[in-house]
Amino acid sequence: MAKFQRKGKGAAPEISTASLPDIIFILLFFFMVSTVMRETTTKVSQHLPGATEVKKLERKSLVSYIYIGQPKRAFQGMYGTEPRIQLNDAFARVDDIRDYITSEREKRDENERPLMTTSLKVDENTRMGVVTDVKQELRKANALKINYSTRKVETIN
Amino acid sequence: MPRREGGTFNAASMADIAFLLLIFFLVATTMDIDTGLSRKLPPMPDPNAQQDNKQIKERNVFVVLINAQDQLMVEGKPLDIRRLRDEAKEFIANPNNLSNLPEKELREVPYFGEYMVPKGIISLQNDRGTSYGMYIKVQNELAAAYNELRDELAMSKFGKRYEHLISEQQDAVKDIYPQIISEAEPKNIGGN
């Protein structure tokens, strides 16, 4: 049994910080396991629309992303304010999507390819024209599983 | 002067190192779970294949049009988005067997036996000028209509919500209310 020898000695006992690194390491491991690396920095504004009937996107490793929106302020000088498509880290044109899908497909295992999903992260204020073009390209590339990325909200309007 | 007793070393800076690593991971990673509406695009029509002229009866199609001003036209009449869900539910289920709403077909469905399965499909068409926000709202309302119908059916048959059913039961419910939203080729009327 523990003996409380220092009791009543007067000076406040110091807290041992020896276990502090362990606590921090536990936190660190928690974050390492529960998060994924940020792969791209978005160069287009991303205010996603809200929806109530959302589903979680499973298997993040099988998801490729297409970002569409107005270029952020820093890029507006070069790319203007019309909504643009971003693939990986660069602005792209509609014609580049097919190559992008092909290269994404190459990266995956043969038997996982049919499960691949394309997530469309489109800004609310984009017009459907560019989205439709992207969808047509995806159809041509035979990447038919898509996901309209939305925020989860309780009610709309 | 640091005391050295039997090879112990000062571990005080260990915490700082761990903190640095922790902060690095906090900054470099994301934790947001991606959510969204999953859809399947129709495959590109084969140019060599023969035009398939299968006509779908007008009563079986629920036409939803969105114009460039984000206004909705449903079955030839302007409609407020807030009423779209109920209208869609009414159409899909056709509870009173009205003659202007979709036909039903007697089909064998697991768990349900012979069941009158409605044959309605939803056709969604938007303009190139429609805003994406509006498009998602409409998609969401249509999905909600299907989900509510499935929930109601699951409730009356199994006494549970659709999401709590086992997958065979879910498939049976899905058989009765398959989510068919067909998107026509886009058109450009409103400019842009």
Task: Note the topology.
The complex is a heterodimer of chains A (157) and B (192).
Chain A: H1 20-34, E1 36-37, E2 50-51, E3 55-56, E4 63-69, H2 73-79, E5 84-87, E6 90-92, H3 96-107, E7 117-122, H4 128-140, E8 145-149, E9 151-152
Parallel strand pairs in A: 2-9, 4-7, 7-8
Antiparallel strand pairs in A: 4-5, 5-6
Chain B: H1 12-28, E1 29-30, E2 35-40, E3 61-66, E4 72-74, E5 77-78, H2 81-93, E6 104-109, E7 113-118, E8 121-126, H3 132-158, H4 167-176, E9 181-183
Helix pairs in contact in B: 2-3
The multimeric state of the shown protein is heterodimer
Task: Say how many strands of chain A there are.
Answer: 9
Give the radius of gyration of chain B.
27 Å
Distance between the termini of chain B: 77 Å
Number of helices of chain B: 4
Content-based structural category of chain B? alpha/beta
Mean pLDDT across the residues of chain B is: 79
User: In which range does the helix fraction of chain A lie?
Assistant: 25-40%
Question: According to CATH, what is the topology of the domain at 50-152 in chain A?
Answer: Nucleotidyltransferase, domain 5
CATH level-two architecture of the domain at 58-183 in chain B: 2-Layer Sandwich
Please identify the top-level CATH class of the domain at 58-183 in chain B: Alpha Beta
Which outline of chain B best applies? Answer: elongated
Query: At the first level of CATH, what is the class of the domain at 50-152 in chain A?
Result: Alpha Beta
Task: Let me know the largest β-sheet of chain A.
Answer: 5 strands, mixed
Regions of chain A with pLDDT < 50 over 5+ consecutive residues? none
Backbone CA Rg of chain A: 24 Å
**Rough shape of chain A?**
elongated
Estimate percent helicity of chain B: 25-40%
